[in-house]
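Incident review: delayed structure delivery

Summary: a single-chain prediction request sat in the queue longer than the usual turnaround. Root cause was a stuck worker, restarted by the on-call engineer. No data loss occurred. The affected request and its eventual output are reproduced below so the record is complete for anyone auditing the incident later.

Affected input:
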Amino acid sequence: MSAYTRLYRMTARDGQGAALRAALEDLAGKVCPIDGCQGIELLEDADKTGTFVFIERWASAEVHRTGSAALGKDAFAPVMAVLAEPPEASGLSPLN
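Output delivered after worker restart:
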């Protein structure tokens, strides 16, 4: 079980759903190899085409912060370029 999960909900601008999906798939390929990353899950909302949930599982919140810093903001640029609005983000910890 991961000690820390980071969840992002993102919606593409009109007509940019495929571009957002591709950008998120590329981002997942960059995040997964980072030490402490325990997996990525990418989901599309079944009722809202172009809305995605990107879930990162990490060994700890600190490992997530370190990994995100090492990745750099440029890795997120293709995602940010096609979003309709800023992503909704949550840091989650298991209850047990």
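Verification: Helices lie at 17-31, 61-71, 77-80.
Action items: add queue-age alerting; document worker restart procedure.
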